[in-house]
Amino acid sequence: MATETKNTDPFNGVATDVDSKATGEEISADSFQQMVDILDSLLEHQHNFTDTYISNCECECGGGGTI
Amino acid sequence: MATTTGTTSGVTDMAPAESVRSIYTNPLRSRIQTGNTIRASDLNLLRDFISTVRNHRHTLVEYTSISEFGNNGSTVPVNRTASKVYDSSNQILGTLNLPNRSRGEKIESIHHNLLRIPSRNLRSHTHQFTDSF
């Protein structure tokens, strides 16, 4: 059976990203809290995916199944 | 070309969200606040939180057919489904190689950044799965 590798749509968590820190730069509590927020937002998430049915068509319709 | 858009299950391979929150989120939010000293154990807990989340997966129900050919709106029962668990390992991760920090050791920018990279990769991540139908 033919197979293909696909990716889901990305899950985009909380809006605020975490900035990089340079040597000597202050690291505030907020920066670590942003990491915690990102991780917490991932505890109950889902993704969307799209299946084109190219890899297997059982209905002899030439490359895309009717669903 | 026929396509369908579906939604994966919620997170698998991880304890229920409230359990994870009680272990990681709540203690970290309590400890890491302005004016508090960040302890080595806090940083290690954050690292372990990242490690827990990065290993998550989802289940996807993949259909070989969910309707009769050429008969939109069919009421024929769903059949020939397969539940696929797919691994996220190739898509999510930055390296997570922060060594365990001990009391008295400095927490430097490099340590912050070692936690930041996998965090930001997780923030907008995808999963890869092998589609066999």
What does this structure look like?
The complex is a heterodimer of chains A (67) and B (133). Chain A is α+β, with helices and mostly antiparallel strands. Chain A has one helix and three strands; from the N terminus they run E-E-H-E. The relative contact order of chain A is 0.26. Chain B has a three-stranded antiparallel beta sheet with strand order 2-3-4, with no helix packed on it. The model of chain B is unreliable at 76-95 (pLDDT under 50). Chain B has four helices and six strands; from the N terminus they run E-E-H-H-E-E-H-H-E-E. Chain B has a domain at 11-56 and 89-123. Chain B is of the alpha+beta class and 133 residues long. Chain B is elongated, with a radius of gyration of 21 Å. Chains A and B meet through strand 1, strand 2, helix 1 and strand 3 of A and strand 1, helix 1, helix 2, strand 3 and helix 4 of B.
Brief summary:
The complex is a heterodimer of chains A (67) and B (133). With 67 residues, chain A is of the alpha+beta class. Chain A contains 1 helix and 3 strands; from the N terminus they run E-E-H-E.
Net shape of chain A: elongated
Largest interface, C-beta closer than 8 angstroms, per-chain residues: A-B, 59 and 63 residues
Spatial gap, N to C terminus of chain B: 15 Å
Largest sheet of chain B: 3 strands, antiparallel
Helix content of chain B: 25-40%
Question: How much helix is in the residues of chain A?
Answer: 10-25%
Shape of chain B: elongated
Rounded to the nearest angstrom, the radius of gyration of chain B is 21 Å
Task: Tell me the series of helices and strands of chain B, N- to C-terminal.
Answer: EEHHEEHHEE
Number of helices of chain A: 1
Please give the count of helices of chain B: 4
Low-confidence sequence ranges of chain B: 76-95
Strand content of chain A: 5-15%
Q: Give the strand line-up of the largest sheet of chain B.
A: 2-3-4
